[in-house]
Design brief:
By secondary structure, the protein is of the alpha/beta class. It has three domains: 198 residues, FAD/NAD(P)-binding domain, CATH 3.50.50; 110 residues; 122 residues, Guanine Nucleotide Dissociation Inhibitor, domain 2, CATH 3.30.519. Helices cover 33% and strands 19% of the residues. It has 16 helices and 19 strands. The protein has a seven-stranded mixed β-sheet with strand order 7-6-15-16-17-14-18. Strands 9-2-1-13-19 form a five-stranded parallel β-sheet, covered by helices on one side. Helix 1 runs parallel beside helix 9 and helix 1 runs parallel beside helix 16. It is globular and about 65 Å long.
Length: 497
Amino acid sequence: MSSGLVKIVVIGAGFGGLAAAIRLRAQGHDVTIVEALEQPGGRARVFRQDGFTFDAGPTIITAPWLVHDLFALGARATADYVTLVPLDPYYNVRFEDGSVFRYNGKPDDIVAQVRAFNPDDVAGYERFSRATVEIFRAGFGLIDTPFLKVSDMLRVAPDLIRLQSYRSVAGFVNQFIRDERLRQVFSFHPLLVGGNPFQTTSIYALIHHLEKEWGVWFAMGGTGALVRGLARLFEDMGGLIRCHAPVARIEVDPVQRRATGVRLGSGEVVPADAVVSNGDVANTYLHLVDPAVRPRNTDRRITRRRYSMSLFVLYFGTNRRYDDIAHHEILMGPRYRGLLDDIFTRKRLAGDFSLYLHRPSATDPSLAPAGGDCWYVLSPVPHLGGDVNWDVEGPRYRDAIVQYLEARYLPDLSRHIVTERMVTPPYFRDDLRSHLGSAFSVEPILTQSAWFRPHNVSEDIPNLYFAGAGTHPGAGLPGVLSSGKIVADLIERGHRR
């Protein structure tokens, strides 16, 4: 191998870490994953209680070929490890006035629904849809391309300007569409990757074409089944996963400025020729790397970045089914931009909310006991840079959301909940070691994208690499899987700065 690297340690068994590890193992490296939690998955861990199976993290699978590519690297078929099924609709988007947009990938269905909402927006939607094709072709082609030098950014700058990447997703959509509800339907997607639609670069409008062309998928058994499939693939390829193995420090030779391994919380040192961190980028630098060996990535540089919002999530099981609710429901509240300003700018907990309601038992009833449903309801909330006492506000917020769901969508919900658990921003800080309790790491604004985003290889330590939501290309399953490819390609090419 050109790089000469033999032993690689990957910190974290999230999707980015698993993708990097599988690719590195396919290249012939000796790869060990060390995972702090009791199971692989990271944010995509699984909670099981009282017969219900809850995916703790991501539930929307797009760009399925990125998953298939990983199994092909191990000369296996995806279907031998996990079953992926397409969803229709992708989401129901529900509004306070009772209107519902059933979002799927069928162009005629989408146009018919746009017409039903506002006939005058049909032509504008069709122009928007065509524009997202061009954005996809330019933007998605960069998803597995590293941006390590200013020249890498300058090379694509003309395309970014031509595609109006300086606009926000909402600003881009609003050029074409006038109905306020439809504007929300076609601009909410950045929230799925930790971005404010009014601040996230319009490159993320490519999600519309990605979903329409390749669908939204679900792993039978839940996203955790996909995690288990990838973990088993890695182990079948000869890789090693060590759970209950939190990293206390990345060992760096102070003279050569090269990583030599990781020190676990137990004191054990695991030597390595290269280290890949799938942990939160900010946490990695701030807590695992001695400041003396990172003159470029200083504490000040790390903490001055803008970080995504956090999440409030209530996982609950019911002893009845609600079969008029789809697998994915987006419940739009009475405010859109004002609520987002509260979350991202004012960093205050508002009295109203918009919600993502996930009902995986609509597709896979085995996730709940017979006759029951498995759920989570998610609300974007400020990260811990605000001033919210979650010990006090968490239970109040939980009750307000349950009452809202019961009044509008899930009759008699309170008396049918038989199990539940709640996570708030401190969970992301304490359990997942995410800076400020951010749920998606670095916020995806233009000035924190591509070359401006934390690099996939450290500018300070040339054999310390990063995969996951906080580095390029960003959060979301396609992004974190592609970050794993970038890292593996850099290591295989023997990249050195």
